[in-house]
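Reply to dn_fold:

You asked what the input looked like. This is it:
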Amino acid sequence: MTIPDQQNQTALPTTESEGYARGLNPRTIQMIAIGGAIGTGLFYGAGGAIAQAGPALILTYLAAGLAVFVIMRALGELLTYRPVSGSFAEYAHEFLGRFTGFATGWTYWAVWVTTCMAEITVAGKYVEYWFDIKPWITALVVLTVLFGANLISVRLFGEAEFWFSAVKITAIVGMILIGIGVLTIGFGHAAHPSVANLWADGGVFPHGFGQSLMTLQIVLFAYVGVELVGVTAGEARDPKKTLRKAINTLPFRIGLFYIGSLLVIMSVASWRNFHSGKSPFVEVFEQIGIPGAAGIINFVLLTAALSSCNSGIYSTGRMLRSLSLRREAPAVVGTLSSRSVPFAGICLSAGVMVIGVIVNAISPDKAFAYITSVSTVGIIFVWGVILVCHMIYRARVKAGVLPASDYRLPAAPVTTWLALGLLGLVVFLLFFTDSGRIALVVGAVWAVVVSVGYLMMTRLGSEDRKQGGSFPRRPGVRV
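and this is what came back:
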């Protein structure tokens, strides 16, 4: 294990050297953190998972939520040691070497680009529910508007994400309160509302433990986005304080938005009433007798898709700039605009996302299954890198090489190993489903692409150094 010398350590970038504006206040950071924990995986995808696992899905969400909290606390400890935007790639570069930093940065970029491709397509389908507009047109409009908002300023991105998150939170809290009213005072027209529905209809594991375990991969990906607060470090006011608070409240958010909502949903109606391809929120509102339930949830789903795409455009621009500053992406994507946003990086990312509009216009479904599978294995890789970097950081602190953080992951390294074990289990489970095997194949292809890209980058970098170039690039260049 190589220990960097003091000269290299002092050259590492910090938030002060990156050139970003501090446009994200604590209120916005909190909402970004909350919004990142709520997505279409809960509002829409949970229906199929309930049908597959029954009430045991609650336990699966709890196990995955604990692992995600460990990942975020590990990231939080690294962020308080050295808060930087594009933190995943920066820490991978520092603790695991240049190739891993290169692979982590580009993989996280690919995760969000492919996610955005899928989300703008989904947004088109949601709008089609109300208006006879072709989905690809909606997808193009959505991408253009969010692209423009991200170019104007980080504050505008933050405000948009604040209100997107507010809609999602209102929907979940409203459903929970209505569900509690159904269970306690008999509000609505649900057939047999009772907490006993959680165990009385086939037991907690109605299809067996194995089927419940298979939902772990679905559940884990519902949490994708919680790590976004790490990307905001370069633009958060008082990042050590605000990011710490955002991470500390994660268990509460998981408990309320995921565990709480599922407990209420499967108490109001038996798990047998929920089906794949239909939002469990729509189904439970219909059970209660709420008029216009489908339209209400369709609006919330549209908001979730817009939120995800908004976050994707934001994070990909910052990640490309982080890569550029280390000479691992074209120089142009490292430039900042006069408004302190990575103008070129956002433009490049949005340009690639247009592929989603084109595919949507031609023939979307099967192609998108392959494209989005990059994010399936990609986020496991990124989260795994965070955990490994944390273990190496702790080892170097113990050796007296690096300063200790005052925000420490409890019970490490035991908790770190347990979280890594869960990620490994999910990878193993991917072999047993068709979509999982596709994800592994596409992930292997992506690994080859990244390796070839790294070799090309290394060769170009070697030629550049021969001509008098330097490494790394100096941040803060503006256009």
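DSSP finds 20 helices and no strands in the chain.
Hope that clears it up.
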